[in-house]
Input
Amino acid sequence: MKLNVKNETAQLKVVVLGRAELNGAIPTLEETFDAKSYETVFNNDFPIEEDLVDEMTEFESVLKKYDVEVLRPSLIENVNQVFSRDVGFVIDDEFFVSNIIPDRAEEGKAYDQIKEKFKGNKITYLDENIYVEGGDVILYNDYIFVGTYNQPDFKNYKTGRTNIQFVNYIKEKFPNKKVLNFDLKKHDTNPYEGILHLDCTFQPVGKDKAIIYKDGFLFEKDFQTLVDIFGKDNLFEVTKEEMYWMTPNVFSIAEDIVVTEKNFTRLNDHLQNVWGMTVETINYRNISKMGGLLRCSTMPLIRK
Ligand SMILES: NC(=[NH2+])NCCC[C@H](N)C(=O)O
Output
């Protein structure tokens, strides 16, 4: 298998999809590490395994319908393995193993068998001072967009996952790409006020379009940079409420095929009727209660 990912939307061939069986006990408030999970636990609304498994099975069958090969991480009991995205990511033909938040360190082992499958490809482990999670890395051909929090209180936030050291590293590693980083608003307990990863506030779809939540960016000039790159008419701006439900976090199977959540009616209508895409809608609301959605639960290995 030859790894290849250069953007978010080229035709998908092979993907890892997380898993929801034996995810472990409901976390306590202190054990949560993102604002949405904090709120879910606070409201005594943590999703049950059966519903999570059903939602991921529905996602898997849509992927298979389009002939995508779907791999699953091996099962580690009592570890939440839903969000494959963050553990590692492919840029071009190289796999990067993330340095994720220590609370999630155990998840990495579950990818050993998958790494075995793509042995022979470049696999890179990052220095220990470089923090990154795949949700903060978004590829757009010659561009690499990185969600960061480059502020003095970085260490105070459990939701600050990617640092400027990663940006510097990736600039040096890919001198021919345009690497742009965007500081995101952070809040560990209020999901309306903070953005966990870049893919919770922005994501390209189609050939030259994107979904975006303006107020997720710490600096308005960063939002403007993206307006300049994509053009105003090619952006679908979501509201605060839509951001809260993780509307930017859809997942593309191809430039014209997007998997989204059933409840995203305004977005789905736009994708289908204004941008002419095929929209596959599934139930994924229980997954969202743990702070991620469709993109977060996948790790693409090969796009055409
Ligand atoms: N790519 C993403 N946005 N992933 C969401 C991960 C959510 C998970 N609860 C965490 O805090 O790490």
The first helix runs from residue 35 to 42. The mean pLDDT is 98. The chain has one domain: 12-303.
